[in-house]
Amino acid sequence: MTYLLFFYNIAISFASLYLCSTYLRLYRAEGVSTFLYVALLYLLYFIDIIVLYMFDFIPEFEATLTWLQETAPYVYASLSLAMLLCYRLILTSSFDRSHPNQEAAFWMMCFLGTVVSWTIPDFAVSVIAEWVISTVLRLWVVMFGMRMLLVRTVRSNRSEAFALAAALAVFVACEIADSIITFQGVQANIYPLRRVPMEVLGCAYLAAGFLYLRYRRYLERKASEADLIPVVAHRYGLTKREEEMLRMLAEGMSNRAISEREYISVGTVKTHAHNTYKKLGISGRSELDGFLAQELEKASRPKRPS
Prior knowledge:
This protein has 306 residues and is mostly helical. It has two domains: 1-218; 220-300, Winged helix-like DNA-binding domain superfamily/Winged helix DNA-binding domain (Arc Repressor Mutant, subunit A, Orthogonal Bundle). The protein has 13 helices and no strands. Helix 1 (2-30) crosses helix 9 (196-235) and helix 9 runs antiparallel to helix 10 (240-250). The N and C termini lie far apart (61 Å). One of its GO terms (biological process) is regulation of DNA-templated transcription. InterPro entries: Sig_transdc_resp-reg_C-effctor, Tscrpt_reg_LuxR_C, WH-like_DNA-bd_sf. GO terms for molecular function: DNA binding. Keywords: DNA-binding, Transcription, Transcription regulation.
């Protein structure tokens, strides 16, 4: 179990650092503030997992962190607040919403309230006070996300609405589970640093970060293939009809969908597709993606100077 925990910490650390640097590069390249906030979130994940790793495997650090928790417990607790703030900023920037001054004051008051809560001598009261403040912020984030789901432009985009709904569902489920663990810990007079629901939430959002990068590459490849079609058509001597057929096949349209769009029979579609495949030197649709990937690689190679 110890070895499993060790390799888990290492894997999450590298994943967090990779995503942080990748989204930071995207921000520098495109100037989209959402990428900056996502990079900051993954940086916080990285700091958090490093602290947990050192606490679990370095006895000297365990003693230091225990001392810090006793003298200034709000230092490590502020990581959770910073993550909540990042979630809010990501939602705000993703849907082009402004940051009103009143909300900034609200977050500052909650942060100060958390600091004050950790000065309460009674352990149970202190933990419950912090939980109340952090729960208010969690509800604030969730309510904003749910409000965005009601926006017509978001609802009309199924993939965007599904991604937001899934992110909110995971967030709510993990936060509820974490609250249950917190109250159980209060009864036992303990407050563990590593809590499974928060680990699950972090892993889920790390996976979401990788999935988004993969989705971006998919869209970029599709866009590149769309620009590639005229080049391939010219290279292999396709007619205008065959070029348009190749474009629709590359988009993944079925024979029936093509026939309905072009007002021709399915048999005619199959004939045009067969002729197109024959000119390209492939046997059928199953080889088309690989063929276009090879052609895209050829087109992207720098030409040698003559």
